[in-house]
Amino acid sequence: MEALFEEYAAFEDKVKRTVYIDNLSPLAKESVVKAALDQFGNVIQIKIIRTYLELKSMGRAALVEMQNADEAKTIISEICNSPFMISGMPRPVRARSAVVEMFDDHPRKPGRRIMCRWLGSSDPDFEVAMKMKRIVRYHAKEANFLLKRQLEEEEKLAKEQSESLNAIYNKYELVQHVCNSGTATRLAKHYKMRIC
Question: pLDDT tens for residues 117-129?
């Protein structure tokens, strides 16, 4: 019994060092999130949480375990106070302290019993359960629609950023060509200007 208490105490310590980050891009991978958060401390582990009710079971949240609880608090305050950038794109990300229920692999709390039962149609809680089931289905349809829209917008933004970077690069090459080919020197002589 004592080993169970020690295991659960170690798990609770892990929970204190963990940050829950929500509203991530569905395209964000563990390596990208780790690179973004490594500046605040030592990231031990990142677990992307899949939303199985939405399109393609994409990740929308993550549990980030840090070296200590102070680093976790720093991440929470930084994300709350400044924009969170992933791959050059700002994201309206939310962060908060993790809680025990967020972990699907947590050990059983010593002394706790969970009881489950089937609800029959004559049970007083049956209507409440059916209402919750309908709400969950409706929410899943809404979430799928919103996720499709978000993916379309992110792909459009990525394309615009790529086109913008290509245009800037082409302008830079043109300026380099003008400077290297002697055209700038000839123009400076013609207009009686000095080149720095």
Answer: 888 889 888 999 9
pTM of the model: 0.60
Are 99 and 118 in contact by the 8 Å Cβ rule? The answer is: no
Q: Which residues contact 107 (CB under 8 A, 6 or more apart)?
A: 4, 7, 8, 11
Strands (E), 10-146: 18-22, 43-50, 59-66, 84-86, 89-91, 94-97
User: Distance between CA 105 and CA 120 in Å, rounded?
Assistant: 30
Give the angle 99-103-109 at the CA atoms, nearest 5°. Answer: 80
Q: Which of 28-42, 80-94, 128-142 has the highest mean pLDDT?
A: 128-142
Q: 126-180 and 183-190 are packed helices; what angle lies between their axes, rounded to 10 degrees?
A: 60
Number of H helices, E strands in the chain: 5, 6
